[in-house]
Amino acid sequence: MKNILVPIGSSKSAVNTLQYAIDLAQEVDANVYVISVFQEFSKAGSASKLNTVLKEDTENTLEKVVSTVDHKGVSVVSHPIKGGVVDGVERFNKHVPVDLMVLSPRSNSVRDEVYLGNTTGKLVKSTNIPALIVPENETFKQPSQILMAFKNGNFDKKRHLEPLKKMQKHFGTEIQLLHVETPESDEKMKQISEDLKEISASYKTTSNATTYQGVLEHFQSVNPDMVCVVRRKRGFFKKLWEKNVVLKKEFFTSKPLLILRVQE
């Protein structure tokens, strides 16, 4: 885990999210990159001056946030990026390979019933980068236990599990596996990859209507420091992720949420 990316919006939690990322980076010896995206207007007429103002405002926001946190000796580099947030992150990822995005649940939304706001939901849904959702006011602590819930136990490439392996290596984290069998599960999905078995401290199967219901049923018995789920093109919360905004009544955890990405 060499490069951690922290996209920030107008949320008051930007400072807290960045500090969490820095604290994590210090532990795993990673670099932190902070970006904020601004939308350019057509360069015709007075729009050119407006674009200059927008860029300066974005730079000022970044400078204010970066100057507020404790760097703890970690390399923290900030960049204003023009364009859409997804395109901006993907362009950045081409130049600096990102191992993990650390995100606030709601970068702009102030609606209390919202778990993941539009920007965060869009990044989770539309990029192929593992994401760690950090609850508001959460301070970093080494995760001693992670509850990993999944429906499909097949992980074809070792790199898909890399964030979990890093947690286990650096913190001695115990990975508690919860294999949720739903009405959609077939025999292949009920299998489990050897790479996943190797990092597990325990393995449990359960039958539920959805992965989320499996998490709710077993959360208290594990009492994890972090929850991990898998975002597949045809898997976890397929219907839920069709939209960007995720309400708390649809999915919610008060713990940091690690979302692994698996291409299919």
Summarize the structure in words.
The protein is an alpha/beta fold and 264 residues long. Helix content is 32%, strand content 25%. The protein is built from seven helices and twelve strands. It has helices at 14-28, 47-68, 85-95, 118-126, 162-171, 194-199, 211-222, and strands spanning 3-7, 31-38, 76-82, 100-103, 114-116, 131-133, 145-150, 174-181, 200-207, 226-232, 246-247, 257-262. It has a ten-stranded mixed beta sheet, with helices on both faces. Strands 5-11 form a two-stranded antiparallel sheet. Helix 1 links the parallel strand 1 (3-7) and strand 2. The longest helix has 22 residues, at 47-68.
DSSP E strands, number: 12
Distance between the termini: 23 Å
How large a portion of the residues is in β-strands, by DSSP E? Answer: 25-35%
Total helical elements: 7
Q: If strands are numbered along the chain, what order do they take across the biggest sheet?
A: 3-2-1-4-6-12-10-7-8-9
Task: Please provide the ordered H/E string of secondary-structure elements.
Answer: EHEHEHEEHEEHEHEHEEE
The radius of gyration computed from the alpha-carbon positions, rounded to a whole number of angstroms, is 19 Å
Mean pLDDT: 87
